[in-house]
């Protein structure tokens, strides 16, 4: 089957959304499908077209950027050309320009609703949500990660009759030596995230005074698009605890197993519905690392399904600190549930669910 993915950013840009699409496309290629990704050329150093791991990548040159999105005439042209040869078009939302390939295609459309949006500019948010609603309306099927998230989503509530729930594709991480030495006696609290305001990193930093001999270690981009103001705010907080917060920068997703091996607990202090699941928490669990995550729809699902961590209220440094202490004291109990994680979130089951969906529509 010829599958076209529509997404604004794609590899080498790193986010949960880009990692999801990359993994799914490559898994489908392994099973004999022909996959093409249409995305924006967000970096001038990237090629207009290339093939990575069997997936053809076509990039449209933008005219200019608005917030985290782009205006591009090339996107219109390439959408028209690529949808003509696709058996199914998979649009990855949120995406302002995704309605174009969704409307242009003559075949089936699947919309993956990865997450809600929460932008400081309410006008831009309203426009983007309107365009996402249009894509959802024309889609033959809508996919989101969990029923918990779908039923709490602002936009998906109107489309539950055609919504299907499929976990993200999450392979077992490979153990890789990152060349990072952890000092004896230190406890490392891991965060695997971009410096983006929905990640709530400030609340974890706020928990540090309540934690002894603990250091926060952050793996993820420190220069994410459109988050300059948030980064400045976080760095001011880090100055007060500079010996207890360490940024490792972007780690290749294929090497994240090395990061999980270094940490004692992974924390997702996310604060709003822009976070819909948190694939990194499942990856950590697969490596035997317990998790503390906030009580958000979708985000709480991996812990509730596996009992391999603690769920805490959002924006609450005290609750984060208490849960981290509890998890660290009872780590061996949580590690016993690793087999449940491997069964519940098996990537072969996820890919098979996608193949069944593509054959059904």
From TrEMBL:
Glycosyl transferase family domain segment(s): 181-331
Membrane-crossing segments per the record: none
Superkingdom, taxonomy of origin: Bacteria
Domain Glycosyltransferase subfamily 4-like N-terminal: start-end pairs: 14-170
Cited CDD domains: GT4_PimA-like
GO molecular function: glycosyltransferase activity
Pfam families assigned to the protein according to its UniProt record, in alphabetical order: Glyco_transf_4, Glycos_transf_1
UniProt-listed Gene3D superfamilies: Glycogen Phosphorylase B
Xref: PANTHER family: SULFOQUINOVOSYL TRANSFERASE SQD2
Protein name: Glycosyltransferase subfamily 4-like N-terminal domain-containing protein
């Amino acid at each position: 089957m010829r599958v076209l993915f529509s997404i604004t950013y794609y590899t080498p840009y790193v986010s949960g959304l880009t990692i999801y699409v990359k993994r799914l496309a490559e898994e489908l290629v392994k099973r004999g499908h022909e996959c093409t990704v249409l995305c924006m050329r967000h970096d001038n150093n990237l090629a207009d077209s290339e093939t990575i791991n069997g997936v053809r990548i076509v990039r449209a040159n933008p005219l200019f950027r608005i917030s985290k999105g782009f205006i591009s005439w090339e996107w219109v042209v390439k959408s028209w050309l690529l949808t003509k040869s696709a058996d199914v078009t998979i649009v990855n939302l949120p995406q302002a320009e995704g309605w174009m390939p969704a409307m242009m295609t003559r075949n089936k459309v699947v919309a993956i609703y990865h997450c809600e949006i929460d932008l400081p500019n309410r006008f831009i948010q309203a426009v983007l949500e309107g365009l996402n609603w249009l894509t959802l309306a024309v889609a033959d099927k809508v996919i989101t990660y969990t029923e918990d998230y779908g039923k709490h989503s602002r936009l998906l509530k109107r489309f539950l009759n055609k919504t299907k729930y499929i976990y993200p594709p999450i392979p077992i991480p490979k153990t890789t030596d990152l060349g990072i030495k952890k000092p004896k006696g230190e406890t490392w609290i891991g965060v695997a995230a971009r410096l983006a305001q929905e990640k709530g990193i400030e609340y974890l930093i706020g928990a540090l005074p309540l934690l002894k001999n603990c250091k926060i270690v952050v793996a993820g981009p420190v220069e994410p698009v459109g988050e300059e103001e948030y980064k400045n705010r976080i760095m001011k907080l880090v100055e007060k605890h500079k010996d207890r917060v360490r940024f490792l920068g972007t780690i290749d997703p294929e090497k994240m197993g090395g990061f999980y091996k270094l940490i004692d607990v992974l924390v997702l202090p996310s604060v709003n519905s822009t976070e819909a699941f948190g694939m990194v928490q499942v990856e950590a669990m697969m490596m035997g690392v317990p998790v503390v995550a906030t009580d958000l729809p979708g985000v709480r699902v991996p812990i509730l399904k596996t009992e391999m961590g603690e769920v805490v209220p959002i924006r609450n440094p005290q609750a984060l600190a208490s849960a981290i202490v509890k998890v660290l004291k009872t780590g061996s109990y949580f590690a016993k549930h690793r087999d449940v994680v491997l069964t519940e979130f098996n990537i072969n089951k996820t890919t098979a669910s996608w193949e069944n969906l593509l054959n059904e529509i």
